[in-house]
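The methods section describes the discrete structure representation at length, but only in general terms. Since the whole study asks how a given chain folds, the encoding of that fold should be made plain. An entry of this sort, consisting of the sequence and the corresponding backbone structure tokens, reads as follows:

. . .
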Amino acid sequence: MTRRTVRIAMNGVTGRMGYRQHLVRSVLALREQGGLDLGDGTVLWPEPVLVGRREHALREIAERHGLTEWSTDLDAVLADGTIDVYFDAQVTSAREEAIRKAVAAGKHVYTEKPSATGLDAALGLARLARDAGVKHGVVQDKIFLPGLLKLKRLVDGGFFGEILSVRGEFGYWVFEGDWQDAQRPSWNYRAEDGGGIVVDMFPHWEYVLHELFGRVTSVQAHVTTHIPQRWDEHGKPYAATADDAAYGIFQLEGGAVAQINSSWAVRVHRDELVEFQVDGTHGSAVAGLRGCRVQHRASTPKPVWNPDLPVTHPFRDQWQEVPDNGDFDNGFKAQWELFLRHVALDEPYSWDLLAGARGVQLAELGLKSSAEGRRYDVPELSL
């Protein structure tokens, strides 16, 4: 086997997502398995160069994992002609400028979502990358997770018949930070820093709905801030200016309707932190990040409404678990592998900056819908 190195500038790896999912569970995991086998006698070997603002944090991460290259100077890293790919997991407000610099330096770009703080900026990045001829991708991890892969298998196999509706529940209680530390960074709850559950989660819902059920054609949302005051990492109170809950109704191409609730102020009474129930004429399914259960029309019971009698049959026991029928890798790692194959072999890849712009568009229209109390059509985007 011939080893081919791809050098990746990874910006934002001192953050929770950048470190856990992208550095450790994706790029370093690829190295632990001996690299990415390209199938032509070549193994692609990812070489991360850590980038960030906090020197001590970068040094500590590098030492922990036996890495030798890190820098707080993004411009210098991008000027290095041996760097092939720029990856961005920074706060959203810093992303556009960094990606523009990377494209100008001729680097392929892979970025967390949302790709920018607004639709015009997101489309601008997509056009910039297209015109520069660099390859580009946006993280859309949920569709690579076991539960949704099983759900897609059901859709592709015609299990549902005509799909009528999709109902999604996402969220958990994020502690305010006063008597227990919050499990999310404080910037998530400040609109001036790019926070908010709509800009965070609506891009996810766009690609999940688009990939599995059809393009979103309209959105109606109610957005709110349930917890108006929180405490930051230093124990200081601050005003939560960003939305922490959103309740959306999405019309899909083909006629199905999706309802998705997203909240960081809800306590979990479900099997997973996110679940989608899909109902069709021939069957229904409930999928989380890992599991998926189904009920076919032939095995659907006939409940009768009678509030005077206790329920005698537990409804959850009437569903059947969908088998794995295969091995599922980490969803982030799976998409990293596809993007690196796209860079190395020019294999087809659809989750690009234009796809990322669709997520930004849906978030923008969701916020506008809530502010104006009306439903908005979602125009199809093109470059």
